[in-house]
Write a structure and sequence with these properties.
Largest sheet: 5 strands, antiparallel
Radius of gyration: 17 Å
CATH architecture: Roll
CATH topology: Thiol Ester Dehydrase, Chain A
Structural class: alpha+beta
Helix content: 10-25%
Number of strands: 7
């Protein structure tokens, strides 16, 4: 399985006075992983017909639904791993799922739906077949797992 790892320092603003990570920080981590997952796959797509006069891609995506369940608190300091994958590709949308682990315990899980649109007029569009194949990894390769490592800065230096 192909993996990517991103290290992110837990910010002081992510926690409350009891060192619990606020749920909004977890949502931000999932958003970061979601965008990296989808954008990483879009970069593999030849935009050809989807370029405007400035040669900028006209195909983009926007979050339309986020369903998240919190299972266990995340404490500061610590390491959080977020695994994500494409769950389903429809005619105009892609559904992804993410699992947030802290100390090997499932802390949260989410499903996100993104709709693809043309940037020039903001209208939803059908996902091109080639991009669908890339999103579902039908052209070889494995499902991508995104891991975001939340690390406490070493204060012992």
């Amino acid at each position: 399985m192909v993996k990517e790892t991103t290290s992110i320092e837990v910010r002081f603003t992510d926690v409350d006075s009891q060192n619990h990570v606020n749920h909004t920080a977890i949502i931000e981590w999932i958003a970061h992983a979601r965008v990296r997952l989808i954008d990483g796959k879009i970069k593999q797509y030849d935009h050809g017909q989807w370029k405007n006069n400035d040669e900028e891609p006209e195909l983009d995506h926007v979050l339309v639904n986020l369903d998240i369940n919190f299972h266990k608190e995340v404490l500061y300091p610590g390491i959080v791993e977020i695994s994500g994958r494409v769950l389903n590709v429809g005619s105009k949308s892609v559904t992804t799922e993410f699992f947030v682990y802290s100390k090997n315990d499932l802390s949260a899980e989410a499903q996100c739906t993104n709709v693809f649109f043309r940037t020039s007029d903001k209208k939803s569009v059908n996902i091109p077949d080639q991009l669908k194949d890339i999103l579902m990894n039908k052209n070889g390769g494995n499902m991508v797992t995104k891991q975001i490592r939340m690390v406490q800065p070493n204060t012992n230096d």
